[in-house]
Specification:
about 700 residues; alpha+beta; seven-stranded mixed β-sheet; six-stranded antiparallel β-sheet; elongated
């Protein structure tokens, strides 16, 4: 590739640059990713271990709920308060002691997760939801126990048991919702087959996936999942990569093409040389990135944590204040205690604790399914603020796939085909997009490529070699200017073309023009950006004429031509100084400094290369419409977070005063069990609202 600096295509020349900024940014992400907390200790990372742990906890809550419910039925039936309410009488000998025994099991078995959580919160010095629940059930249990053993007053065993049953149910539902939010990760984890067919000499052996090594050759049969990232060494087929890249159409893969582990082989058998296994595989990197993004505490997450903490202090203050006020007003201690218990139940910031983490989990998983890999939650949330979008041209707005558009001989001794044939000898070993374009044309025309001798790179200008006894050079316009060779008038058209010149024995023999086709999705994406008041700009290493042609065709707000990678940083800074909130899109390698400098760095690239990039957000398909999806989905995610915060806090603002008894004079009092029902309902509403986010992204 370094041999083709002459093509003046800096944005495609993945030169080795100072990646200190890039590395620094990666470190920042990793630090941030390890700060992520969980909700009351039961929202671990969503890897396989995390899922198993989560499932065990769900099973535990389910079991405790059913045991508590079974015991609650006789407690309700034998409770004097319930009997008075429904107008029946059925008291057994030692009735209070039976209620005490059943309620003790409920308190210690059913209430154990809350008591344990309370102790954990107190040790951390961070009272929260578990503290509130524990105080509510403990006050009810110990007060009722005292009434059994001599204290005057009515017991609250029925309220204690219903409260614990409802709380267990709420937790069970909440944890199922959180687990459901990361189903996409479970799907990703389950995408890899358990075995691989390894080719050893003339035999094929089935081995466990973990025994697969780099450079092993494996056989992938039609309809099977590809066991590891690799390169096809024999065969061609169509592969379905939709779950990995979001690309719905099967992709044609031939010899020397890369395949991704987890993709599904079509109708032909392939032999694949393994490149990455296990932790290094593309799929594993995707899973790890999504896990880290889900664990990351975003700014909105921190806001909800602060709100929950303050609500705890407020609830404790109002709880004890309620007890004191009702006692001062001369009401019985039992009544004052009931109001206090109800306030404690109502105030549990359960919905608040669930409001943000659930949206985070769902948005990250849904994004991954649609080819958006979020590495930095904060940048994703801030994508709604983007006011200027700076595109790298090649491979983003355009396909990055150069095709020969014109071949012109200017020497009667050589035909157009001869110009193409001789130049192909110099280009056959290069992976530069222009070289690839020339070789592609040669193959299409069934031209045999001659062998070059004494190959040499002309630094920054082109390449030269002896082909069939003739000295051949393929060079840039700059070489012609330096050598005072006149460039033919018709060499450049108005089209967005790149032109290379062919010299034979020091004389200009002809030129080859190539064009990078504009992506059909680019125009549609730019309409969406403009509709959302986002300026769209382009920075390219291409010449002025090419840049202008692309810019005019797409209706961009501006462009920067003949830009070197380091100059992209200056463009980003210039836009930021004008007050713009800048998103930079690039390939993540030579654009690394600009990606680091931008407010939101979006790396583009397809296949296995994408996992190595360092940016806030990664687009698997290099499709500009994905960026439009990203911005719109970022807005939708932010709105869901705000909606959930408003609902969770608004519910408490209304419910706490009702629980304290402000409407007592109107004859309305909110009992603890009813309060618990409303609390659980609030949690369910928040969970459903978060799930609706799945509809907010355009599926490809």
């Amino acid at each position: 590739m370094e041999n083709h600096e002459h093509h003046n295509h800096d944005e495609m020349d993945h030169s080795k640059m100072d990646h200190s900024k890039m590395k620094h940014k990666k470190e920042d992400h990793s630090k941030m990713n390890h700060k992520g907390g969980d909700h009351s200790g039961h929202n671990p990372g969503h890897g396989e271990h995390g899922h198993d742990h989560h499932k065990m906890m769900i099973a535990d809550f389910r079991k405790r709920f059913w045991v508590t419910l079974v015991l609650t039925i006789p407690i309700l039936f034998f409770s004097p308060m319930i009997q008075d309410f429904f107008g029946y009488e059925f008291l057994l000998p030692g009735n209070p002691y039976i209620l005490f025994a059943l309620s003790t099991i409920v308190y210690f078995y059913g209430g154990w997760p809350f008591l344990k959580g309370f102790w954990s919160e107190i040790k951390k010095g961070a009272p929260g939801m578990m503290t509130l629940i524990s105080m509510a059930i403990s006050v009810a249990y110990f007060y009722s126990t005292a009434t059994v053993f001599g204290l005057r007053g009515e017991d609250f065993f029925w309220e204690l048991s219903t409260l614990i049953a409802i709380m267990l149910l709420g937790h069970w539902i909440e944890m199922k919702s959180v687990l459901g939010a990361s189903k996409a990760l479970q799907l990703l984890v389950s995408m890899m087959p358990a075995e691989a067919h390894r080719v050893k000499d003339d035999t094929i052996e089935d081995i466990p996936l973990e025994d697969l090594l780099k450079d092993d050759v494996i056989l992938v049969k039609p309809g099977e999942k590809v066991p590891a990232d690799g390169i096809i060494v024999d065969g061609s087929s169509y592969l379905n990569e939709s779950m990995l890249t979001g690309e719905s159409k099967p992709v044609k893969k031939d010899e020397n093409d890369k395949v991704i582990g987890g993709s599904v082989n079509g109708n032909s058998t392939l032999k694949v040389k393994v490149e990455h296994t296990g932790k290094d595989s593309y799929l594993n990197k995707v899973i790890k990135m999504v896990e880290e993004a889900q664990k990351t505490k975003s700014k909105m997450q921190n806001l909800s944590d602060r709100a929950a903490k303050w609500l705890t202090y407020i609830a404790l203050a109002i709880g004890f204040g309620t007890l004191a006020v009702w006692l001062i007003l001369g009401f019985p201690f039992v009544y004052a205690l009931e109001r206090m218990v109800t306030v404690m139940v109502i105030a549990c910031p359960h919905a608040l604790g669930l409001a943000i983490p659930l949206v985070v989990a769902i948005s990250t998983a849904v994004s991954a399914q649609n080819g958006l890999l979020i590495r930095n939650r904060t940048a994703f949330e801030e994508s709604r603020k983007i006011s200027a979008l700076l595109f790298d041209k090649t491979g983003t707005l355009t396909k990055g796939d150069f095709g020969v558009t014109r071949i012109k001989s200017v020497n009667v001794s050589y035909s157009n085909d001869e110009i193409l044939r001789l130049s192909s000898a110099l280009e056959q070993s290069s992976e530069h997009p222009i070289a690839v374009g020339i070789i592609k044309k040669v193959k299409e025309d069934n031209i045999t490529i001659p062998k070059p001798e004494n190959f040499n790179a002309i630094t920054g200008k082109g390449v030269e070699a002896n082909v069939e006894g003739k000295q051949v050079k393929v060079v840039s316009p700059g070489y012609l200017r330096d050598e005072k060779i006149t460039i033919p008038e018709d060499a450049y058209s108005d089209a967005a073309e790149t032109v290379v010149f062919v010299l034979i024995e020091g004389q200009l023999a002809g030129y080859i023009a190539l064009a990078d086709e504009i992506r059909p999705e680019s125009a549609e994406a730019i309409k969406i950006f403009k509709k959302n008041n986002i300026k769209v700009l382009m920075a390219t290493g291409d010449n002025e004429k090419t840049a202008k042609a692309v810019s005019e065709k797409l209706g961009l707000d501006g462009y920067y031509a003949e830009v070197l990678p380091h100059q992209k940083v200056e463009i980003v800074e210039e836009l930021q100084n004008k007050g713009e909130f800048v998103a930079m899109t690039g390939d993540g390698v030579n654009d690394a400094p600009a990606l680091a400098k931008a407010d939101v760095g979006i790396a583009v690239g397809s296949g296995t290369d994408v996992a190595a990039e360092t940016a806030d957000i990664i687009l698997v398909n290099s499709n500009p419409q994905d960026i439009a999806n990203l911005i719109l989905f970022g807005k939708a995610t932010y709105n869901k977070m705000i909606q959930n915060l408003i609902w969770a806090t608004g519910y408490n603002v209304v419910a706490i005063p009702l629980a304290a008894g402000v409407l007592y004079s109107s004859g309305f009092v909110l009992g603890p069990a009813v309060g618990a029902v409303f609390m659980s309902l609030s949690t369910i509403i928040v969970a459903i609202n978060a799930q609706l986010l799945k509809r907010k992204i355009g599926k490809k």
